Amino acid sequence: MNRLAWPATVAADWLAGAVATAWIALAIVDQTWFKTSLLVACAWIVQRAGREMRAALQRLRPGRARAPGPRTVLVRLRGTIDTANADQVAHRLRAALRSAPARIEIDLARVPHITPSGSTALLALTRTARETGSEIVIRNAAPQPRAALRAVGLDRLATFQNDEPPHTGGGRA
């Protein structure tokens, strides 16, 4: 079954339920209060069917539900990403997603360490970004954060660029 068929079937089932409820309310029921409650239920069912179809269409065309935003959004993170601040990191990335950019670059140059909970938070937001059609690029990841993100499979959803930290030594080049 294709990406639209199953949600369309669910929406059609909801609409069939609405038709049946309306028919019962108008043709069979005599009490006004019961007829009114059935028609209210019918309106709710039609609304639910509309939600199912909208969700199906958004999954069919990721990233097209919102007006196009800027081409690239850069999010610079710093400090250790762990359980204590994973929610703050997720909030910053969700804020970047609101503008529906074509590309989100996450700069980890100032992130020395990422715990498993921190990398899981980044993975969840990366999946959300991919579903909306945004490309994710992880920039300047130090060895430990890069390894932590690859351990949770982020390398399959995002592109790593500038993986080598810049040379800061004072010696000759």
Describe the structure.
The chain has five helices and four strands, in the order ααβαβαβαβ. The chain has two domains: 5-60; 72-161, STAS domain (Transcription Regulator spoIIAA, 2-Layer Sandwich). The chain starts with a helix and ends in a 12-residue tail after the last strand. Residues 62-68 and 166-173 have low confidence and may be disordered. Helices cover 52% and strands 13% of the residues. Strands 1-2-3-4 form a four-stranded parallel β-sheet. Helix 1 (5-28) runs antiparallel to helix 2 and helix 3 runs parallel beside helix 4 (116-131). The chain has helices at residues 5-28, 32-60, 86-97, 116-131, 143-151, and strands spanning 72-78, 103-110, 135-139, 159-161. With 173 residues, the protein is of the alpha/beta class. InterPro entries: MlaB-like_STAS, STAS_dom, STAS_dom_sf. Residues 70-173 form the STAS domain. This is Anti-anti-sigma factor.
- % residues in beta strands: 5-15%
How many H/I helices? 5
Total number of β-strand segments?
4
Please give the order of strands in the largest beta sheet.
1-2-3-4
Q: Which structural class best describes the helix and strand composition?
A: alpha/beta
Gyration radius, in Å = 24 Å
**What order do the helices and strands follow?**
HHEHEHEHE
Can you tell me the residue ranges where pLDDT is under 50 for at least 5 consecutive residues?
Answer: 62-68, 166-173
What is the terminal separation in angstroms?
59 Å
As for the CATH topology of the largest domain, it is: Transcription Regulator spoIIAA
In terms of quaternary structure, the protein is: single chain
Any idea what the shape is? elongated
Fraction of residues in helix: 40-55%
- CATH domain class name of the largest domain: Alpha Beta
Largest sheet: number of strands, sense, barrel closure: 4 strands, parallel
CATH architecture tag of the largest domain: 2-Layer Sandwich
What do the pLDDT scores average to?
A: 77
What is the name of the CATH superfamily of the largest domain? STAS domain
**Tally of domains:** 2
Pfam families: STAS_2
Domain STAS: 70-173
Protein name: Anti-anti-sigma factor
